[in-house]
Specification:
CATH architecture of chain A: Alpha-Beta Barrel
Shape of chain B: globular
Oligomer: heterodimer
Structural class of chain A: alpha/beta
Strand order of the largest sheet of chain A: 1-2-3-4-5-6-7-8
Distance between the termini of chain A: 18 Å
CATH topology of the largest domain in chain B: Rossmann fold
Helix content of chain A: 40-55%
Structural class of chain B: alpha/beta
Number of domains of chain B: 2
Radius of gyration of chain B: 17 Å
Order of helices and strands of chain B: EHEEHEHHEHEEHHH
Low-confidence stretches of chain A: none
Helix content of chain B: 25-40%
CATH topology of chain A: TIM Barrel
Low-confidence stretches of chain B: none
Order of helices and strands of chain A: HEHEHEHEHEHEHEHHHEH
Largest sheet of chain A: 8 strands, parallel, barrel
Mean pLDDT of chain B: 89
């Protein structure tokens, strides 16, 4: 069963992020992904995350698909105007990509090319609408397509955003224009996440909750200070601070597993963002009872 | 320079039917081409069909201090109004919105780009001259000039404590828009899916003032 089928079936979903390298050495990333074959339902390939110039999401998605690993093509509005976005969606389809996650994208000023021209011709909502229109066999200006693509369209939501009501209004708009699943920013505060899910579950669209394995107390504090909507509770920061260096991965996994267990019954799946710790993903799944 | 054009009636009328109106009109400055005849035609029609509690014909609606004084003088009529209509460039509308925070302020105009020097007293507010003014959906706060990504459908999710991720000294435009619409009791405006901007509406040097006047 493919990812779209699993979403419909009600199965608990596991997705994992693959970050393309800065350069062309792709083999280790592909090998890491292959180790997760059968354990993970689909792989999100990021589109120059944090506005750092990297190998493209489209080519990595294609390489994964060729290896029988199901990709989720992340596509942002940061670097492409409406012609390029539509064209890249068509390209993705002919390369065998069936799942896309459509985002606005980070501003270039946050990345390693702050001088770049920010495009943002469309935004996440209008891009979802455009993708839905392509699936109906038309471009966004109503011109007929010679063969239409078919995608499982995804979107993102930040459960920790403030004000939450504003985030939910945007989420509802994304559903209105075709989003059929959501992946979230990393969750560390289960209480906040419960509150969000109470409100979001009425939309009836699957929500896959974000998971990051903490590497250190410093990383947790950095995220609290710099990433909107992420709040790592003090008890987890203390657990990381007290752990000996060689014990940190174990403690990080233990925390992530606790979060996953807490999320299992309230959302439709988890989305793991390993951020370089791909090697610990199988262990995390095992400790969480998902292997 | 700027060129103002009156919005289509169907975009204005449904918002104001059976509401008490106060109308601001800024026939413009040397930097703005303002279609006085078109504006007058719409206002004459409104005078017949709607209850208008006051009208103001003011030059330099972009001058916030000046408009603030004026609003004080006419506060009684303005208080009586349920909707404030503004006929001016985008800057004038933003100024009036910012001064009448508890009022529903709508613009009746789109502002287009015209080659040449721009504006006189645009100290605090900026108009992108996009030709399809969004202020009626955003509580008079321009998402094009106040959001670094010029997002039309809500915030990016990067705001922290109401501050912009790109420029932490600045307020997140969408948090401001949300707060203002909440105060106006108009949060439902945020539910509308906004279509992408039409960049073909930007008039470049190919359009001179003489051409518009013709």
């Amino acid at each position: 069963m493919n990812f779209a089928g699993k979403l419909k079936s009600g199965k608990f979903i596991i997705t994992c992020e693959v970050g393309p390298p800065k350069g062309v050495n792709i083999n280790s990333r592909l090998a890491q992904a292959e180790l997760l074959k059968g354990k993970v339902d689909a792989f999100n390939v990021t589109d120059m995350q944090s506005s750092v110039m990297k190998l493209g999401s489209l080519s990595v998605c294609h390489l994964l698909a060729m290896r029988g690993l199901e990709p989720i093509f992340q596509l942002t509005c940061r670097d492409r105007n409406r012609l390029a976005l539509q064209s890249d969606l068509l390209s993705a389809y002919v390369l065998g990509i069936r799942n896309v996650l459509l985002l606005t994208g980070d501003h270039p000023i946050l990345g390693d090319h702050p001088q770049a021209k920010p495009v943002f011709d469309l935004d996440s909502v209008s891009l979802l609408k455009v993708a839905s229109t392509l699936m109906e066999g038309k471009d966004m200006n109503g011109n007929e397509l010679d063969g239409k693509p078919d995608f499982c369209l995804g979107a993102v939501v930040n459960p920790g955003a403030d004000p939450l009501e504003l985030q939910l209004i945007k989420m509802e708009k994304k559903i209105e224009v075709g989003a059929s699943f959501f992946q979230t920013q990393a969750v560390f505060d289960l209480e906040k996440f419960y509150e969000f899910m109470k409100k979001a579950s009425k939309f009836g669209v699957p929500v896959v909750g974000g998971i990051i394995i903490l590497k250190s107390a410093g990383m947790a504090r950095y995220m609290n200070e710099n990433i909107a909507g992420v709040s790592v509770p003090e008890k987890y920061i203390n657990m990381m601070a007290e752990a000996e260096k060689e014990e940190r991965a174990k403690v990080g996994i233990q925390i992530a597993a606790e979060l996953i267990k807490g999320m299992r019954d309230i959302c439709r799946g988890i989305h793991i963002m390993p951020l370089g710790w791909e090697r610990y993903v199988p262990e995390l799944l095992e400790v969480s009872g998902l292997a | 320079m700027l060129a103002v054009q009156i919005k289509p009636e169907e975009e204005i009328l449904p918002r104001i039917s059976s509401k008490r109106l106060f109308i601001f009109q800024c026939p413009g400055c040397q930097e703005v081409y303002f279609p006085r005849g078109d504006a007058e035609a719409v206002i004459s029609k409104l005078r017949l069909s709607e209850e208008i509690v006051g009208e103001a014909l003011l030059d330099y609606l972009c001058n916030r201090d000046f408009v603030q004084e004026y609003i004080k003088q006419y506060s009684q009529q303005i208080n009586e109004a349920q909707v404030i209509l503004v006929f001016s460039c985008g800057v004038g509308t933003q100024v009036v919105s910012s001064l009448l925070d508890d009022k529903v302020v709508y613009t009746c105009c789109d502002t287009l780009y015209l080659n040449g020097f721009q504006g006189v007293t645009t100290l605090k507010f900026n108009c992108d001259q996009c030709g399809e003014c969004y202020l009626n959906y955003t509580g008079g706060i321009c998402p094009l000039t106040n959001c670094p990504k010029a997002l039309l459908n809500g915030p990016c999710g990067g705001a922290r404590e109401g501050k912009c991720e790109v420029n932490p000294d600045a307020d997140c435009a969408w948090v401001l828009i949300y707060d203002r619409l909440k105060r106006m009791g108009k949060l439902d405006l945020l539910q509308k899916v906004m279509l992408p901007r039409d960049y073909s509406k930007i008039i470049t040097e190919s359009l001179s003032r003489e051409k518009i006047e013709r």
